[in-house]
Specification:
This protein is α/β, with parallel strands linked by helices. Helices cover 42% and strands 15% of the residues. Helix 2 runs antiparallel to helix 4 and helix 2 packs across helix 14. GO terms for molecular function: hydrolase activity.
Amino acid sequence: MDLSKVTLEIFSKLEQQWLSHYEATPKTRILSIDGGGTTAIVAGAALLHLQDQIRAQTSDPHAHIADYFDIIAGTGIGALLAAMITAADAFGRPLYTAGDAVRFIADNNRQLYKAKRGGVFLRRRRRFSARSMEKALKRVFQRKDEEGRLLTLKDTCKPLLIPCFDLRSSAPFVFSRADASESPSFNFELWKACRATSATPGLFEPFHFASVDGKTSCAAVDGGLVMNNPAAAAVTHVLHNKRDFPSVNGVEDLLVLSIGNGATAKRVNGLGGDCSTSAVVDIALDGVSETVDQMLGNAFCWNRTDYVRIQAFGLGGEGMEAEEKEVLNERVLESLPFGGKRLLQETNGNRIDSFVQRLVATGKTSLPPSPCKVPP
């Protein structure tokens, strides 16, 4: 009898430890940033508030967004934000804050999207200068302490995903730190990844580029045409990448924050039936983003708190600060499992606050910061 009691007590303690470990196992945290537009007002406002809340709730004025996410994905202008907040310094720590990234886009917007000169015959369609954008991107992804070496996908503090569309293979191409770690044939300079995913048809010519060893080449156009909302690509990547995410068996092991960049189709409505290339692209980008949101809403319908979507539809303030406030104060429009949307009482700012509480509760991520660096 005494032996039975001891055995029962031992198994009870083992069960409690197992349950405690199971409940405490942190979810893999994904941050996804949409493409669309050139100013990144929605994404910028959300990222700034996200960083401010992380710092406030951790009492750490130097905390970075990348410290609390396991993987970050971005398309178009969202890819530039994602690449900047994951780019690593010489010690494997984030090179830029969210504020630095948003400020860079605001201060260099005219250079990133500089209109081409039309010469004697003015172009009917507005095009942007690839050379001007490339110059700005090379400057921001250059390592000053290593004789101007350009950063690559391997020089990131967290796994990074950036999609584009390859005209040569007629298929999507996804820049991935996981692939870059496996082979130099899939390692690309960060400025090239950002340039490729931003090559919007009608605004930029297709971008021809190669990997660091020259063995893999692409002719890229805007990744937004197929993955303007890269959240689904990030979820799929994590579910199938057992090397980096061995504990993930299904969506129940994930925590996803998806940040939109405004509803581009809303702006198209005011074009008076314009069916130009840029108008069609805007509609396509918006449709892709909303479709992915609907799909992920269905996948996480059992627990909607594990999937949070930040989007804005009613921008109209005067100036950047006014529009940033509108983004955070706008009420959430949530996708329903079987189609349609519902307007919630909570705002985008409220949702980010609640999400950060869960991030902070589980602590910083434990993934290695970079395949080639170890922090001091």
